[in-house]
Amino acid sequence: MRFISKVELIPLVLPIVKRNDDIAQQIVDSVKKSDILIDDGDIFVIAHTILSRSEGKEYYLPSLSPSPIAEFIARKTGKDPSLVELVLQEASQILKVENNIIITKTVHGWICANSAVDQSNSQPNCAVTLPEDSNKIASKIGKKLTKTFRKNLSVLISDTHGRALRRGAINIAIGSFNFSVIDDAIGREDIFGYRLKSTIIALADEVCSAAELVMGQADEMTPVVLVKGFKQRSQVSKIEELQFDDERRLFK
């Protein structure tokens, strides 16, 4: 349950991230440089691209050798065969190829377009994939921030995903640390006394979408957003709870 009167979104400026950079330290430096006061309950939303780059998940496309299936899909979609090869390497299953889009289930379990392979905010002729383990990274960064600022803090790793029935992409959570990913409202009463029977709120996705309002997607260099004022009343839960099992997915 949430009791929130005001939420504040503060974008943090970071330098261009290189391989093996310490993202947690860069966040600490940005907070101190901006003279921001950190409070208990603050949430850091981090765009996955900087984490991917720091762990070497940025690939030079001309160095990849497209497979026959990648060449076939490239001809069908008009995409670069090397890019398609990277999409296939990041996929555990190809679900659909249509409208020049490749819908896959990634090796991480996410269902999305092009295995979440992204050429934005990557170097020329390169593309970035999702981190190896977003939860592990969120935990590592969250523990360092918690220790440094001596506050009870949360971390969410975000990615921009499209939606099956609406145009436009939104930010969603793909990794978490110390956060109520799901708010199960089943059993609570509304203002007229009706007992809720199926209402489950994806809090992590809501916070990531809010953070995207001020998160830089182009040349702003603000890939981290500090969210203040969000009060958690549900138990800490895992990011995996946001995903449906294959047999429960309505759209296949």
Task: Describe the 3D structure.
By secondary structure, the protein is of the alpha+beta class. It folds into two domains: 8-57 and 131-242, 2-Layer Sandwich (60s Ribosomal Protein L30, Chain: A); 59-128, CofE-like domain (CofE-like fold), CATH 3.90.1660.10. The chain contains six helices and twelve strands. The chain has a five-stranded mixed sheet, with helices on both faces. The protein has a three-stranded antiparallel sheet with strand order 4-5-6. A hairpin with a 2-residue loop joins β4 and β5 (101-106). The model has no long low-confidence stretch (mean pLDDT 89).
Key terms for this structure?
252 residues; alpha+beta; 60s Ribosomal Protein L30, Chain: A; CofE-like fold; 2 domains; 5-stranded mixed beta sheet; 6 helices; 12 strands; 25% helix; globular
Question: What does the secondary structure layout of this molecule look like, with pairings?
Answer:
Elements: E1 8-12, H1 23-33, E2 43-47, H2 48-54, E3 58-60, H3 68-77, H4 81-89, E4 91-98, E5 101-106, E6 111-113, E7 126-128, H5 134-149, E8 154-161, E9 170-177, E10 182-184, E11 200-202, H6 203-212, E12 224-228
Parallel strand pairs: 2-8
Antiparallel strand pairs: 1-12, 2-12, 3-7, 4-5, 5-6, 8-9, 10-11
